[in-house]
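Action item from last week, closing it out:
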Amino acid sequence: MWVVLLLAGNLQCSEARPDACYQEAEVLRLAGKEEDRPSAAVRALLSKGCTWRHGMSCWMLGEIFLDGRGVEPNHRRAARYYARGCRLFEPKACREAGKLWNWGSAFFKSKTFGKHYLKLACDLGDEEACITLHIETPR
């Protein structure tokens, strides 16, 4: 469906439509079989979307930098993108920030921050975060 919309010119990545940046990036990523190694063009679209306050774009950039998909793995950059996505109310970004702080590299070890982000994700309706939070903090 996104391919049809993109070809019809209905989607245009802009500050007024930052969600279109994410959608264009997904079309490029999937059409180019780039699931494992997103191209610079995909990252540029996601970066624009994140800059223009689209939380899912920030979350996806966090995923790319955490796993090193097409770039050197960079947990600090991933954490920044997750935190920005969480501030934009993207539950997946909050959940991943929480997981990174709870179980990430030595730089990120902070159960306090981890629980904070997991609680935000749970409050935003992320079921996985709620389950993780309740496992971490039994009643």
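Closing note: Residues 20 and 116 are 30 Å apart (CA to CA).
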